Predict the structure.
Amino acid sequence: MNENLIAPSILSADFARLGEEVDNVLAAGADMVHFDVMDNHYVPNLTIGPLVCEALRKHGVEAPIDVHLMIRPVDRIIPDFAAAGATYITFHPEASEHVDRTLQLIQGEGCKSGLVFNPATPLTHLQHVMDKVDMVLLMSVNPGFSGQSFLSSALDKLREARKLIDASGRDIRLEIDGGVKVDNIGQIHAAGADTFVAGSAIFGAGRAEDPHTYDSVIGAMREVLAGSGC
Ligand code: DX5
Ligand code: ZN
């Protein structure tokens, strides 16, 4: 298994002081910045694009940026995110006419690629493209908003995805996104996830004025992860 990574979703950050918020979660021990891109079309919400990703890089953020595209179409914007400093670019297979081409496009731009599975989307989309995937991201909520409750059906799906990844013998991260908290991260890890997105659990625990709260939530998550080997 890969080392565990904690990826705070900036969807729950204070956007008026985004650079500082990202600095604070990274200083508190986060490994990666989860960057939710929504278009009011594929999902019913509208968020941020490549300019904001670039601004974080210019601000000095060196940690990996994990761009989760909840947009349709996807291909046109991928080179822009690559140029803006994205590390991972993941997308939903339903949002691309040509999944294999989109995966190739992402890797061809020098980024790591990933497929995202909604709660009702079967893992069969992985067939035939496993060799072009660096990350499998399972949604444990329906995409569009932070602060929703974890759907327990994701646990069986994680076990299924873990088997597929292990059988492939490839170095592929298994990420979970939606409703991840200190009190469920242990069972999520035991089900096979190695990369944990958390928005409201981390940013909701305190505001930028008191970044120490980020240390305590991230620290508590790490403590659970350390004790819940699988
Ligand atoms: C939902 C987003 C998530 C969201 C997670 O569509 O993809 O990344 O911000 O937020 P929480 O952790 O609050 O469920
Ligand atoms: Zn996300």
Summary: The pocket of zinc ion (ligand 2) is lined by residues 9, 34, 36, 68, 177, 197 (CB under 6 Å). The chain has one domain: 5-227.
